[in-house]
Write a structure and sequence with these properties.
By secondary structure, the chain is of the alpha+beta class. The chain has a single domain, classed as Jelly Rolls, CATH 2.60.120. The protein has 4 helices and 10 strands, in the order αβαβαββαββββββ. The strands form 2 sheets. A 6-stranded antiparallel sheet has the order 1-2-3-10-5-8, covered by helices on one side. A 4-stranded antiparallel sheet has the order 4-9-6-7, with no helix packed on it. Strand 6 and strand 7 form a beta hairpin. The radius of gyration is 16 Å and the shape is globular.
C-alpha cells in the first residue's frame, strides 16, 4: 500500500517545527507504568549507548494538519485512535522497544487495535526500520506497513546523512 498520491509528504516534513524530543531520561516517562521501567531496564542491561538514543515526535493538530491523518485513514479504511510523525536524525536510533500506551484499554472498547507505519521521507542508505522480524530499508516514499500486532517490538535507526521520518497510526475499524 502506498499513500504518496494522497499527501505531499515533502511539504508536511518541511513544515514540521518544534517537535518533542524523546530521550532515555526516566524522569520524563511515566515510571508508574511497569512496562516503561521494563524497557529501560532492558536497555541498561543490554548496554545501549544512551547518548545516541533520541527521536522527535510531532502530533496532529499541533505540529501538522489533522487533514493528513484523515486522508491516510480514509485511504486505509480505518479510524484513528492516535497518530504521530517521528523523526530520527543521523547518528541516532530508537532501540528495541514496544510502544507502551496508557490508553490501550479504552482503545480496545472500540474493537481490535491495528497499527500502521508510513515511510514518509525519501529513503537513503543507512535508514532502517525493523518491526518484529521484518526489516524495512530503501522503501518508496509513501509505503505503508501494517503491523502483525499493534504491540510488536520494533526499532528505528539512522546511520545515513539525512533525517528519517515515519508516520505512525494506531487505529480501529
Amino acid at each position: 500500500m502506498n499513500c504518496k498520491h494522497l499527501v505531499n509528504w515533502n511539504s508536511v516534513i518541511a513544515e514540521l517545527k518544534d517537535g518533542i524530543d524523546i530521550l532515555p531520561i526516566k524522569e520524563n516517562w511515566n515510571t508508574d507504568n511497569k512496562d516503561y521501567l521494563a524497557i529501560f531496564k532492558m536497555w541498561e542491561e543490554a548496554n545501549f549507548n544512551m547518548s545516541a538514543i533520541k527521536w522527535t515526535n510531532y502530533y496532529p493538530g499541533k505540529h501538522f494538519s489533522q487533514d493528513v491523518v484523515d486522508s491516510v485513514c480514509d485511504y486505509i479504511g480505518v479510524k484513528e485512535h492516535r497518530s504521530w510523525i517521528s523523526r530520527i536524525d543521523p547518528g541516532y536510533y530508537a532501540p528495541w522497544h514496544w510502544d507502551v500506551d496508557d490508553n490501550e484499554v479504552a482503545y480496545l472498547e472500540k474493537g481490535p487495535i491495528h497499527r500502521y507505519s508510513g515511510h514518509i521521507s525519501i529513503a537513503h542508505p543507512g535508514h532502517a526500520f525493523v518491526v518484529g522480524n521484518e526489516i524495512h530499508h530503501m522503501w518508496e516514499q509513501g509505503d505503508i506497513v501494517k503491523w502483525q500486532n499493534h504491540n510488536e517490538w520494533h526499532t528505528g535507526m539512522n546511520g545515513g546523512t539525512t533525517p528519517k521520518y515515519l508516520f505512525n497510526l494506531v487505529a480501529y475499524f
